[in-house]
Amino acid sequence: QVQLVESGGGVVQPGMSLRLSCAASGFMFNAHDMHWVRQAPGKGLEWMSFIRYDGSRHSYAESLKGRLTISRDNSKNTLYLQMNSLRSEDTAVYFCAKGYGAIDSWGQGTLVIVSS
Amino acid sequence: DVQMTQSPSSLSASVGDRVTIACRASQGISTYLAWYQQQPGKVPKLLIYSASTLQSGVPSRFSGSGSGTDFTLTISGLQPEDVATYYCQNYRNAPYSFGQGTKLEIK
After folding, report:
1. pLDDT tens per residue, chain B (107 residues)?
2. Cα gap B51→B6, rounded to integer Å
3. What are phi and psi of B47, to 5 degrees?
4. Inter-residue contact A96 to A3 (CB < 8 Å)
5. N or C end: fewer C-beta atoms under 10 angstroms in chain B?
6. Do B34 and A103 touch (CB under 8 A)?
């Protein structure tokens, strides 16, 4: 079955950068669009970014544009998210997700805490 | 960018009740609308896509309707396991924004 396993979370200082990874299995990774979605503690879902199945197109939430880079390595079945200039408000659980439009599969998430 | 607004933000209903949650898009999105359920402590789950198509395995008491800017999620016969926060999402054009969520509790 579909498995999405995020990694790379942890405690980081404000202003630092972080790269999250998502290892995919159980489906043809190179045939599916992928997303990153985050959820701050006690808050709602925030869509962050999307990348087309072949990496040819991507998009970012307007509020995060300029600080994010989404990428994928189809030879490794892995999705990435590079986040720069981290702030306290970036503290959240970060989900890797699969879907062409609607998101049909989610990882368990990785927690990022931005704190000095 | 399309903004998604849900109402109400929270509601309380009794087991067996019919529950309706509304979602409004700031501009027309045809039927590119999905609904998700997030039970406490769990990962979100896709309930409905294309505004009204039930995802495989989702109980038939869930239904969706609408097109353009106004959409509705209906639960016909509320069950205790339906306690959750429900989100709508636009996927007409990126950014694929979510609504702010509707928290559903049992009376």
Report:
1. 999 999 999 999 999 999 999 999 999 999 999 999 999 999 999 999 999 999 999 999 999 999 999 999 999 999 999 999 999 999 998 899 999 999 999 99
2. 14
3. -100, -50
4. no
5. C
6. yes
